[in-house]
Amino acid sequence: AKQQGRNHYQYYLAPEKTEAQIERFAMEAMLRKALEKDELLVYYQPRVNTKSESVVCVEALVRWQHPTLGIVAPKDFIPLAEETGLIVQLGEQVLRKACKQIKKWQDEGMDELSVSVNLSPLQFRQQHLPGVIARILRQAGLKPRFLELEITESAAMQNVNRNILMLRELKEMGVKISIDDFGTGYSSLSYLKKFPIDALKVDRSFISGIHEDPDDAAIVNAIIALAKTLKLNVTAEGVETESQYLYLQQHRCDEAQGYLFGKPMPPETFEEWYKLNMREKDLMFSPDF
Ligand code: C2E
Ligand code: MG
Ligand code: MG
Ligand code: MG
């Protein structure tokens, strides 16, 4: 019976695999089309300065507006985009849209608003990346200091010597650089010291445990201390409760980002959110906006 069960399993495994392959091809074709047909949207999530309680920066987060599937989340297409190399084109579209949007908002009175944009490891490996970014900034009319590039810890720690050169080139242009999802990778602290970066973003997995897990609180405190020592700005990701926010404020974490303040929003919704929360210079917690 055991033997039969195994054969049974194998019999059904093969066609399933093919189906997955077909689906992958179909998805790849759809994604290619999405890039051509401009189906990508950029949502914006506020990053709140814990001292001034004002929004100094927004993170640009991509969404795919598929004609029949609706809004597709990054986790359902970024991995495929990475595997197929489409992420390079996708990432450039996001950068272009985000830079244009921020320039528009600055012109409309949000003078000092910056934007952070996620860079895929593949984009980061492109030798000509600084040139691409310089052109996008120029075309958008945005000053480089208003753009922050988020690279993941694991991307940063691969090919370190090359990365230092790349980061230096980007820094010389005047753009800012942060390490995203910090604490989940395997950072070498001696390399971190050598990286010309501006900020660390503490991964949200540590923030969610601040009050439940003493280890999480200890890690958050250690990352904040590390950032202070290296003179880096530090942002907490995934802040969902007021008590988490108060903890971070008390422990001198520079910025907080999370559903407590607002989810990633389309540009028009962010404008309303900003008016409501910032006009009064009094930050309200409006996660269900
Ligand atoms: P990330 O860069 O770490 O972005 C933060 C993610 O956490 C976002 O998910 C955001 O919606 C979510 N988040 C924010 N606050 C909270 C919270 O309080 N609670 C919870 N549970 N989640 C929160 P999103 O938008 O689904 O993006 C997921 C990931 O996809 C991003 O993680 C980033 O790695 C990637 N991604 C998004 N847009 C781009 C892009 O334009 N280019 C590249 N290369 N990657 C992108
Ligand atoms: Mg990010
Ligand atoms: Mg992150
Ligand atoms: Mg993440």
Automatic annotation (TrEMBL):
Ranges of residues in domain EAL: 24-278
Name of this chain's protein: Bifunctional diguanylate cyclase/phosphodiesterase
